[in-house]
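Data's thin. Show one?
=====
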Amino acid sequence: MLVDSKMIAFRRLSASHAGNAPWVSLQQQSVIWNRLFDMVREATAQGLMPVVLVDLDLTTLLAPQKSRDVLTELASHAVQFGAVAGSSDGTLETTLEAIWRGAEPALLPGYTTTSIQAYGIYCAAQLSVRTGHEIAAERLPLCEKWIADQVHAKLRSDYWNRDLSRDDLADGFAKWAMHLAEVGGRIVFLSNRDPSAREASLHCIRQLLGDGKEPCVFFGPGGSAFDASSKAAAVPLIENGVVAGIHFGTEQDGQTVYPDAVTAGTPQTILAVIDDRAENRRQLIEASARSSSRLIAKGLDDIMDIASAAKGFCPEVDVAGMAAVVSSFVFEANV
């Protein structure tokens, strides 16, 4: 699907979305999680060691209060929106202010540039539906960009100024992780949170897993330039058997390396990538060519590309048309 058609589809989905309901229903995501569990069982039966790669921010760790705080601060700016939209009756501005103040239920923006851009599209679509005021086609991209620019200027700079150890945990993760282990799967967390955030991050990850379980985590060196590439750099190490321990990446000649990750043990096969960012998933799956070959050789399905549309948050535009999108880790068995 082309980018333009994805955007059109995302506008349509945004307009039909109800309030701050999860982007994906429990029934829809249960089908996806049960498919993943079945794949893990099949891979294990075929003698493979299946691994699932899992992201932190906007996937397993959430910060809704930070987004709410930023929108509340921006609410007074909503008065400018009518001029951008070419509307003079004040309805659009009043509704946008109500959304930003939390008086009307709506999804929140994430912190990434791509999710904030999507939030601009979502919010403009919601305004048209809620007010019955159709924004003219020639003004719509300007309105979407204006909303995104307002949020981006404030949220991108403020997002990390919070107590990371108090992040909300994704619903259902502990039960999901336990079931994944029962059917033979392992979890590896991947994050590019910088060194100052690592201890708080580990605190949250241990809460996610529960029962004192020690996680396997790869932390990149931090910085937006290394996000997807730092995660992809961990893939050959994981495929070569590194599925235990906490590993810290460093920058070397413009690339991320993990000097403390010693490749030893049984080769592992990556079955799924769960992340809110399409670029992260793309690079991870491309780097996992060896895993893909192993799966195909065994007659199994290829690596699952699972987009996180975290509960309460607007997802990226790329979710439009995707086969596997989830809003939490809650599932019903055998749906």
